[in-house]
Amino acid sequence: MGRPRATRSLENAARRLGFVHVAGVDEVGRGCLAGPVMAGAVILDPARTVRGVRDSKALTAAARERLFEEITASARAWAVGTVDVEGIDRWNIHQASLRAMALAVESLAPQPDLVLVDAFRIPGLPMAQRGVVHGDARATSIAAASIVAKVTRDRFMCALHAQDPRYGFDRHKGYATAEHLAAVSAYGYSPAHRRSFRPPSLFDRMG
Questions:
Q1: What pTM was computed for the model?
Q2: Checking CA distances to 198, which of 30, 111, 129, 158 falls within 20 to 30 Å?
């Protein structure tokens, strides 16, 4: 694709300071109308290179699937944290995203001693962390986490489509495309939809 690949400069600098297990964390699904928010956390093996890792948004679906398999096979550790639609509606999407990222980090084994997070800092983590602006385009571990989260969530949304094909979840993955908005207007919200966010175009139709 057109964007440059991420590098391991931040991870290498952290290891020179004495950090051993450096994790990257990123979330996906924040701006959707339906489905969970998910976060990936990845500790890459410094001795094993996965070529072509970059921000998941800069990759084709086929490239993401290939890289997902390579990342999960070669990483020292990886995990996915999920907050479902009930949690999103209870806590709001920002807090749900932070919880998903914390869950992903807490699920890693071994636990990291430094966490690189795309843009945010995660409250309550017991280890050092650094928020990296545009981290998914800069740090390979964050880009890898974005790929793990994106592929896992896309697969989940395809499974939802198999259960209820009316909304086209396999195509838009829950984002507010014209197709998705038309389906919501026709069928209303399903159990997979977030009640805490409705596009302005749906207010008059749905109340």
A1: 0.93
A2: 158
